[in-house]
Structures are given as C-alpha cells and as structure tokens.
Prior knowledge:
By secondary structure, this protein is of the alpha/beta class. It folds into two domains: 9-70, no CATH class; 71-259, Rossmann fold (3-Layer(aba) Sandwich). Helices cover 41% and strands 7% of the residues. The protein has eleven helices and four strands, in the order ααββαααβαααβααα. The chain is elongated and about 75 Å long. The two termini are 20 Å apart.
Amino acid sequence: MRTKEPLVATSSKGAPPEQELTASWLGGKLWPLGAPRSSGEITLATRVRDRFVRLVSDQWRGFHSGQFAPLPGCYRQLANGRTIVYIHINKTGGTSIARALGITYKTHLTVQQAQQRIPRRLWDRAYKLAIVRNPWDKVVSHYEFRVRTNQTQLARHRVSFGDWVRLAYGEQKQPWYDNPKMFQSQTEWLSSRDGVLAMDYVGRFESLQESFDTVMGELGIAAELPHLNRTVRRDYRDYYDAESQAIVADRFGEDCRRFGYRFE
C-alpha cells in the first residue's frame, strides 16, 4: 500500500551526506596530518578513509549532522547511496526484511520514536517502509512467540489463548500486558504525532515476497529475502472464540479500516 511518492535520498549538494563526509576527508579537512601527497599516501588514506566512513555510517550515523549520538538501527544507508527507515512492527516478518536490508540488529521503534532520534533532514530524505499483517493472525503469532520464549512466564504458567487475549489486549492487565507498544495497533506504530501515516510504502505480510520485490525496485537494489523465524501452526481462525475475535476487532479496528483486513 503506497501512501505517497518516494523521496530521493540526496543532499543539497547532490550527494548523500556520507559522500560529503568522504569528499571532505580527501580534501584534507578530516586528515589529522594534512592532505596526503604521494600516491602511496593517497592509497593508504583512501583505505583508512573508507574504513572510517563505514564505521561512521554504521555506528555513528549522526556524525555528518553534527550530532555525536548514534542514529537508531532502523536508519541505514544502502550501497547505492539511498537511505531507508524501516519501521519494524512486531510479528510481521520483520526479521527477514531487516536481514535483507543489511540491518544487523533488531530494533522495534514506532514512527514517533524514530522521528525523535533521526534528524529531520535525514528523515525527509529517507525511503520509509513497513510491513503490516492481518491483526487476528498477528495476535496468534504474538501469543505463540511469547509461549515459546516464556515471556511473562507464559510457558511455565500456561494461560489459554482466549484468556490471554482478554487479559492482555482486552483488560490490559499485568503481567501479561507488559510492553504496551507490542500490543498497539499497526496504525499507531506508523503514524506521526499529527496522525499522518508517515510511510512511503506499506507492504503486507500475506504477500511478503511481492512487497519485498516492490521495495527492491523502488530502491534500485537487488537482494534475496531470507525466511527467518518461520513457525508452523494451526490456522489462526482455529484459535478464536466469539469474545477473543471481538476484542481483536475492537483493538485493531483502525487497521481493519485502513488496510482492509477481516476475520476470514
């Protein structure tokens, strides 16, 4: 689902900020002993420069904006110079997408959290994407993951799926409702402070490969989509009774209206 035309990741000088940093290095501005003079010094300086720029880009991406605080892992510069912001909603196949995009560690930030950590000019230039999922299927995946990883002692002190939905999503009771962000609607994940869906592209878990191919085409890169954290379980509809189905419908009502999801 496209929400607006993608932005081109270029700086005011026509090159990504990281390339501006590289150019300033070759000009001697970041070379502590002055600009290299001989061909050997230039070769060595280039290698050291490239290594340093990669480090800056990966670990201290705020360096070129004058901020010595690391930018979040959801922000990344690709090999072709484009920059992306990937909003990784829990239980939407995000680990596979992140791995394909070269994001090496998991980070679950909402749009509003990401906007607080990424300078405005970098945010505006980046291609912003996310994946959404049928809410009823997503909640089942959430439950099974928490049982498997024994979150809130759910494996040791087993609670039925229907009771868990009522306690966590309906009544929002502790300890089951332990991290509110992981229980909020996908629309809340993706909306800016003024309520606008702040994405360039919103793909679907149900057609993950097709969505991934669309993103690759938009970004002008080639990558393979790995299939990570895949689990085999019953059809999500088999988990629900009338009460739990209604709780999810109410909690994710805006997702159903915006993305067209139904219990089917």
